[in-house]
Design a protein that fits this description.
The complex is a heterodimer of chains A (193) and B (1015). Helices cover 44% and strands 18% of the residues of chain A. Chain A is of the alpha+beta class and 193 residues long. In chain A, helix 2 packs parallel to helix 5. In chain B, strand 1 and strand 2 form a beta hairpin. Classes of the chains: A alpha+beta (193), B alpha+beta (1015). Chains A and B meet through strand 2, helix 1, strand 3, helix 2 and helix 3 of A and helix 1, helix 3, helix 4, helix 6 and helix 8 of B.
């Protein structure tokens, strides 16, 4: 499970912090500081994994990070996550940000904190990896944005029109069309049909 | 990607300086939320933390006014929330906005609601009281027809939701499992998983729905359900064995590329899904042959398919290897997995190297030869610039430490320890060094010096068990009393010199250890008098850097030394100084010392020399005070009432309801405080956990004897082939053989690396040979033979001659080989040489030991070396009688007694090393507990037990030792190997190692040179 996701810049200033464990406010700040301290002194040519400090939770936990120009992306995970898998998840996250913001930069992360959180929420939910397909995430975000925008634009319109838009559903994403042939259905469980 | 970021970011400083009017996309974005932009710009421009604080506080007070103003629209509120989120992230308190975040989530339109939910999830934690206000909103949104709202509600539920309110939303979320949109189903599954984590009993009834989610037609939903299964299987794998087939089928389809192309990541089909499935399979197949067999094919397929072209395929490979080594072993797969580990370890990419080391650490218990293959890489990693790699390497070395390589490994660990500053690492490493030192220390000096290093570096952060165990070890000692005294003397001398060094600060714990040891064992010193020791301690006592707890230890040590000293000037000075101390504890100690000092004879009796391990007789009834009590009572004093009685009376007076379920709990006995001299109580603190440490030792890793269980014959054959050639060589001591083998490997490497071998490399190899010594060789034979060679008289035709030769086991081992050759000459022909060899196992030297239950009890208590192990049995085998029978037959144990579900068995290793076994059956577990006077015998016997698994699991074939029919096992009874040579022996076609005799009709003439033993 993912315990926390942190983004900070080269000066250790946090740009995004999302924790999936009930840490107190003070602990969160300490974690950010400690993590930055750990990550910052690493050279470029070393591995991307670190044993977490005492705060994050000792030997079972790990810090997995990537450094992009001025930003550090750090995922704190426990032993049930694959190190390399998380490393690629960070890559997917960054690529998704890049797609959503069209050449993402540090400023985007600060000014659109809420959007970044939304994107993250589509990838990781309650500490569990929800979606790893970039296109899928972007589609979801776009669809939501469209709906929100149309609603905001209709603010002054008659109530009936607003409710019509509100009840409009998200477009079905046609990615599982062929699923019938695949027979993911599990043969050994006839009772659950 | 990183290039792009870099490009954009280099333009950053310019953007900061530009005004909002500037053109360009980034500036347009900045103007969108201009006030946040202003804030960020302001903070970035500041230089000191203090200024930042001032600015943020100002911003927060502005925000406070805005959010509480009634005129603030929801749209403005939304913007305020974003700014609050930013402030809160920087670590400033924004609690005034929490309630407004909840309001926003309640009332806003989609966009505002989203920000409201986001703010709530960032601000509040699970048990925050305001969260209750959100429940209604969540329920409403879950019922909404708008998908976005439902999604938001599900997300917030999986992030934070009060446990006690789960019933309010549970049915709604369960309904969502049947929703037509897959994204909703997926999120619902994860929300339910969250509930499972925080309140497992509330979702028990929907386990069946999880199974439905696993069979969902959408792959995403299925993948989400794997999170739940991974968790549940980790907790209890046996309940989900029936799903193995399903997981295998799913993995097969994923690996086979049957998923839509959408799921590919860098043309690898659904890598994260594969990783998850492989983990689940590893958990399911652990120690379960039948389940494991189901997955062999798909694992093989996975290993084959994962072509090395991208990072993520390595992730899959790593999981594959992990799974292959977790499940019931299959040699083919193990071989492939071992190859994969090689790829990781040898990779130039550091991440992969790290994982390779991790994999090696994991498999080292099953297959130590793998470490031998990669020894040079491991040596290189020891000097790797990345401390994380170094640490992982040390972890690996820690697993392969034995008595032969301990000094080198500990030295490496200490080197690392001196460099690292992180507390977490120090605590961890110090514990490991102490554990290894205690277990394998080669001599006293080394042990004490290592422990000194541990104490001075580990200092006050290390686990308190370390000094306690160390002192207990010193106090209790081993079997050999002179050895113990030497160890103690060495410790005393070493501390004595350490205290001489000026201007060095030792950690408090170390000083405490020193003062205890000096107090107890200074009498062992020849030259230095107790006065000198007291002087030193007194000097230490006066230093400022010492905590009052340590001072108490020191005074206790002085107290112990005082009766041995002749002059007492310093003691008197100490008493004078500390009887006026402001610290009550120290003052108490000083007064105790003072009063004892007045009566030297009494003091000597009270503080005898070297009696720290003796039991103290405490008069718990305090009978010596009876006279005093009687006198007081007669003078009208109130009788004593125990604490709980007093409290009860007090309560009954107050007439308060008692909420305690089972009466009052009263504090532990009162007399412990009166136990007087501090020295004694310190000493008794330390002893008394001997059973615990015994357990600890057995819990820790034991490589010897276990390693060959599943491992393939990696290393031994090579050696045999080599030594087999040199039949004339004298039996070589064990160490030498191993060194030779290491050398062998090295020379192989050398040849491939041509002749350019620098001095540095040689050093590395030297290091390698000292590190990997003892690996993979623990089971070599330790047979001794005397008088090699003898001649038999001429044998008549058609007659039989017996030749008996005795083989004795010097040290226990698991398997060995006895080989030799016989030269004989049939009359008038040239001499012929016959080679033979016999495999011997430990069992050949084990005999039942017939003793009574009482004797068993006595012996049991007298033995120090014990090994415990729990073995799982299939249910049909769980009956006690069948187990007993198997033990009796297969291991030749004598059944001493059976008590209920426990059994006592005894055996001896010829000629006379007894070993006792106590075992107990509970459920399908069999708890084995061996004890013996020999330290290694229990391990080997346990290994034999595991090997003879027939009585545990009928599916495991019993390895039947194959003996040549011509060789009768005469040593069956008395452990004699007897070689029968009949003049009519038939020739046996088996290659090497069999006794061959030549068919000779004519009167023969056999000259038996001698059966020579080798390892």
């Amino acid at each position: 499970m993912i315990k926390a996701i942190l983004i900070f810049n080269n000066h250790g200033k946090p740009q995004l912090s999302k924790v999936y464990q009930p840490y107190s406010e003070d602990t969160q700040q300490q974690i950010i500081r400690e993590t930055f301290h750990l990550v910052f002194k690493r050279d470029e040519n070393v591995c991307n994994f670190l044993e977490g400090g005492l705060l994050i939770g000792g030997s079972d936990n790990k810090l997995i990070y990537r450094h992009y120009a001025t930003l550090y992306f750090v995922f704190c995970v426990d032993s049930s996550e694959s190190e390399l898998g998380i490393l690629d998840l960070i890559q997917v996250f960054v690529e998704t940000l890049d797609k959503c913001f069209e050449n993402v930069c540090e400023l985007d992360l600060i000014f659109h904190v809420d959007k970044v959180h939304n994107i993250l929420a589509e990838m990781v939910m309650g500490g569990m990896v929800l979606e790893t397909n970039m296109n899928e995430i972007v589609t979801q975000i776009d669809a939501q944005n469209k709906l929100e925008k149309s609603e905001a634009g209709l603010a002054g319109a008659p109530a009936r029109a607003v409710s019509a838009v509100k009840n409009m559903n998200l477009p079905e994403i046609p990615r599982n069309i062929n699923i019938g042939d695949i027979s993911i259905k599990v043969p050994n469980l006839p009772s659950f049909k | 990607m990183s290039d792009i970021v870099e490009k954009t970011l280099t333009a950053l400083p310019g953007l900061f300086l530009q005004n909002q009017s500037a053109s360009g996309p980034a500036a347009a974005k900045a103007s969108f939320s201009s006030r946040l932009g202003g804030l960020v710009r302001g903070i970035t421009a500041l230089t000191s933390k203090h200024e930042e604080e001032k600015l943020i506080q100002q911003e927060l007070s502005n925000l406070k006014a805005t959010v509480s103003a009634p005129t603030t629209t929801l749209k403005m509120m939304k913007e305020c929330m974003v700014r609050l989120i930013y402030c809160e992230m920087l670590g400033y308190d924004a609690s005034f906005g929490y309630i407004h975040a909840i309001k926003l989530a309640q009332q806003g339109n989609l966009l505002e609601k989203r920000v409201g939910y986001l703010a709530v999830s960032l601000f509040l934690h699970e048990s925050h009281e305001l969260l209750l206000l959100l429940v209604n909103t969540v329920v409403k949104d879950l019922q909404s027809t708008n998908l976005v709202e439902v999604c938001m509600a599900l997300t917030i539920v999986s992030q934070i939701f009060p446990r006690e309110m789960i019933p309010a939303v549970l049915p709604l979320i369960e309904d969502k499992l049947q929703h037509s949109k897959e994204i909703i189903r997926r999120k619902a599954v994860l929300a339910l998983y969250k509930f499972y984590l925080i309140a497992p009993n509330q979702v028990q009834h929907i386990h069946i729905k999880f199974r439905k989610a696993l069979c969902d037609r959408d792959v995403g939903v299925m993948a989400a359900s794997l999170h739940i299964y991974l968790r549940m299987i980790k907790e209890n794998s046996s309940a989900y064995k029936d799903l193995t087939g399903s997981f295998v089928t799913i993995l097969k389809q994923v690996v086979g590329g049957k998923l839509p192309v959408d799921f590919n990541y860098h043309s690898v089909p659904a890598p994260w899904l594969q990783i998850q499935l492989l983990r689940i399979l590893g958990l399911l197949g652990k120690d379960d042959q039948r389940t494991s067999e189901l997955m062999y094919d798909v694992l093989d397929e996975s290993l084959r398919r994962a072509e090395l072209n991208h990072n993520v395929t390595y992730a899959i490979l790593f999981e594959c290897v992990h799974t292959v080594y977790s499940i019931y072993p299959k040699s083919e797969l193990l071989e492939k997995a071992a190859k994969c580990i090689g790829k990781f370890v040898l990779s130039p990419k550091i991440n992969l190297k790290y994982l390779g080391l991790k994999a090696l650490t994991y498999v080292i218990q099953q297959d130590p030869t793998l470490a031998l293959q990669h020894q040079m890489t491991i040596i290189e990693c020891l000097d790797h610039p990345d401390p994380i790699i170094k640490r992982e390497t040390l972890e690996l070395l820690y697993r392969i430490t034995n008595a032969q390589n301990i000094t080198v490994i500990v030295q490496k660990m200490l080197e690392y320890l001196h460099q690292s500053k992180e507390e977490y690492i120090i605590v961890n490493l110090v514990g490991k060094i102490a554990e290894l030192a205690e277990k394998y220390a080669p001599d006293n000096a080394w042990f004490i010096q290592t422990m000194n290093a541990v104490f001075s570096v580990g200092g006050d952060v290390m686990h308190p068990d370390i000094p306690n165990n160390f002192l207990r070890l010193l106090a209790e000692g081993f079997d050999d009393e002179t050895e113990n005294q030497q160890l103690r003397l060495y410790a005393v001398q070493s501390y004595f010199t350490l205290l001489d060094v000026e201007n060095v600060f030792y950690p408090q714990r170390f000083l405490q250890v020193m003062s205890w040891v000096l107090g107890e064992y200074s009498y062992l010193l020849d030259k230095e008098t107790p006065e000198e020791v007291i002087t030193k301690l007194y000097k230490l006592l006066r230093s400022d850097s010492i905590s009052s707890e340590t001072k108490a230890w020191i005074i206790a040590a002085v107290t112990k030394l005082t009766p041995q000293a002749h002059s007492s000037n310093i003691v008197e000075r100490l008493i004078q100084e500390f009887t006026t101390s402001l610290d009550t504890c120290l003052r108490q100690h000083a007064f105790e010392l003072k009063h004892l000092h007045e009566n030297v004879k009494f003091m000597k009796g009270l503080l005898p020399v070297d009696k720290s391990c003796e039991d103290m007789v405490v008069d718990a009834s305090l009978s010596f005070l009876d006279g005093f009590v009687a006198e007081e009572l007669s003078q009208g004093a109130a009788p004593y009432k125990p604490h709980h009685q007093r409290q009860e009376e007090k309560l009954s007076q107050e007439k308060v309801l008692s909420f305690e379920p089972y009466g009052l709990s009263f504090s532990s006995s009162g007399f412990s405080g009166r136990q007087s001299p501090a020295g004694i109580s310190l000493g008794s603190d330390i002893s008394g956990n001997s059973t615990e440490t015994g357990l600890k030792e057995t819990n820790s890793l034991k490589l010897e004897g276990i390693k060959k269980l599943w491992g393939k014959e990696g290393y031994l054959p090579k050696k045999e082939s080599k030594t087999g050639d040199e039949t004339e060589a004298l039996p070589v001591p064990q160490e030498n053989i191993i060194m030779e083998n290491v050398d062998q490997i090295i020379t192989k490497n050398d040849q491939s690396q041509a002749l350019t071998q620098s001095k540095e490399e040689k050093e590395k190899q030297l290091l390698a040979s000292s590190l990997f010594v003892g690996l993979g060789s623990e089971s070599t034979i330790n047979l001794i033979t005397e008088q090699p060679g003898c001649c038999l008289p001429v044998i008549e035709a058609e007659s039989t001659k017996n030749f008996q030769y005795s083989v004795q086991m010097e040290k226990p081992f698991t398997e060995g080989n006895l080989s030799g050759f016989i030269n004989y000459q049939v009359m008038d022909t040239h001499s012929v040489q016959l080679e033979f060899s016999v495999n011997l196992s430990l069992l050949d030297f084990i005999r039942p030991l017939k003793i009574s239950t009482e004797d068993f009890g006595k012996l049991w208590l007298s033995f120090a070396n014990d090994v415990k192990q729990n073995v799982k049995m299939s249910e049909s085998q769980a009956a006690l009688p069948s187990t007993l029978k198997a033990l009796q037959q297969e291991l030749r144990l004598h059944v001493v007694d059976i008590i209920g579900n426990e059994g006592l068995l005894a055996c001896q290793l010829l000629p006379s090393i007894p070993c006792l076994l106590h075992f107990r059956v509970h459920g399908d577990m069999l708890a084995l507990w061996f004890r013996s006077s020999c330290s290694t015998l229990p391990d080997y016997l346990l290994y034999q037990c595991q090997k003879v698994r027939a009585w545990i699991d009928p599916q495991v074939p019993v390895p039947i030792p194959c003996f040549h029919p011509g060789l009768t096992r005469a040593f069956k009874a008395e452990c004699f190997v007897s070689v029968f040579l009949s003049s009519r022996c038939k020739k046996h076609g088996k290659s090497g190692g069999d006794l061959v005799s030549k068919d000779s009709e004519s009167p023969g003439h056999l000259c038996i040179v001698y059966p020579k033993t080798q390892s």
